[in-house]
Design goal:
By secondary structure, this protein is an alpha+beta fold. 20% of the residues lie in helices and 28% in strands.
Length: 293
Amino acid sequence: MGCTRLSNRNGGSMSLFNNNLRQTVAAALGAILVLSSCDGSSHDDVPGAAANGEHTTSPFAHIKAQPPGGKWIAEARTQRNLVREFKGTGTIYLVGVSLGRLIAVAHGAEISKVLVAKKDMATYYDVVVRPEDTAPGTARSMLRSLVSDRLGLNVRPATEKRMTMVLSPAPGGVLIEESGSNEGILDLEEGQLRAVGADIAQLIALLGKNSKVPVVDETELPGRYDYLLEWDASNGAFAFIQSLGDIGLMLSPGLRPVESLVVSDAKFLDDAGVRPTPVPVQPATSTEQEETH
């Protein structure tokens, strides 16, 4: 790549955390280091896309086709956390997603900011939403209705004091200078993160989208920056945390107020006062699968 790695001006690598703190931060960051792009989406190979950009080749083939405007949901056998959105048709597929992920997609929120009751954490869902109206936001509105009407859940915004990961200047000070570029590129590959004219909000969004806890910005860096972080991917989040020292930043845990989405049983249930349960979806017939290709 054409970028030059930023190095510690003091020479050598900066040691920012003791081992216990490093392990805490690494655990909170979760899967950030296994991503292959900065959008946080899965990149499973799903071949055979149709001209309109939508297809149901594995792993979507088992999800039943639906009429326009309809929505289907079933409990999944395994956790996949696979999400696909096709902008041309407005269709959204979710395969083996947790309730937290389902609600995050429905509200366009970071999953780390969704608070779900422990009793609902172990259930995963297959969902397909195909709106008749392809206007932006229609499918997510349908997902929100699904959460309230079919699952009997209420989602409300609230500011909660929670454990977070705080991104702040390292003791030696910030080691990056403002860029002359406004490109806003933040490219994540295995063991490497390249920024060209990117602001700190992009880095926070990347960390937050893939972290188990919210990430808070306390850097007070308002500009756009060029930098290259490199780390040994085999050492996971531990190595990534160390690499932040190359640009004079650090991650540390801390209690902070966070704007969250709190999920609870809805006050309005069905006529019998029973919380609705997911309706099982029968495997699609070959004809139905062909219709969704």
